[in-house]
Amino acid sequence: MSLEKAKKHLESKGCLDHVIEPEVATGTVAEAAAALGVEPGMIAKTLSFLQGDKAVLILVEGDAKVDNHKYKDTFHTKAKMIPYDEVEHWVGHAPGGVCPFGINEGVEVWLDESLRKFETVYPAAGNDHSAVKLTLPELEEVCNAQGWVDVCKTPEG
Predict the structure, then answer these.
(1) What is the pLDDT of residues 22-50, one digit of tens each?
(2) pTM to 2 decimals?
(3) Quick check: 157 pLDDT over 50?
(4) What is the chain written as a DSSP string?
(5) What does the pLDDT look like over 53-85, one tens digit per residue?
(6) CA end-to-end span of the chain, whole Å?
(7) What gap in Å lies between CA 69 and CA 23, rounded to an integer?
């Protein structure tokens, strides 16, 4: 059902032909990168947070981790992930397929600066056997992003 909701949303934005449905699982960054033949960073990992009584999604580079101080400076609240068994209720998609397409009404979507190092990224498309190939401008448009934030740790090295 989640895949169908995501596809319907993508179709309304003219991007249904961007959906990829591999035979193998794409529920984790490593699985998705292997299935799609891309580096893990290109997987646009969708993280789900609660801010009071509001769900917020932040798409980050596949290898990125949230920096709690940056998150609090940006959103003026502590980073509180939605509990695993509540994600589908809040967002409209289950873990492994969480994406910014076909989500519940009122869920905010933000894009993290960590994605900007890539021209093309691959978020999930509603289940653990799907992805969507999108350029950054397409991603911004298709997911109705509120804007860009910088809430991830700076990679070491």
Answers:
(1) 999 999 999 999 999 999 999 999 999 99
(2) 0.95
(3) no
(4) -HHHHHHHHHHHTT-GGGEE--SS--SSHHHHHHHHTS-GGGSEEEEEEEETTEEEEEEEETT--B-HHHHHHHHSS---BPPGGGHHHHHSS-TTS--SSSPPTT-EEEEEGGGGG-SEE----SSTT-EE-EEHHHHHHHTT---EE--BPPPP-
(5) 999 999 999 999 999 999 999 999 999 999 999
(6) 42
(7) 39
Q: Which residue has the tokens 């994406």?
A: 99
- Residue 149 pairs in a beta bridge with 112
Distance, CA of 154 to CA of 147 (rounded, Å)? 20
Q: Which of 118, 104, 94 is nearest to 46 (CA)?
A: 94
**Buried/exposed 13-47: b ≥16 CB within 10 Å, e otherwise:** eebeebbeeeeeebbbbebbbebbebeebbbbbbb
Q: Is the dihedral of CA 13, 141, 61, 97 positive or negative?
A: negative
* Rounded CA separation 156/149 (Å): 20
Q: The tokens of 155 are what?
A: 């990679």
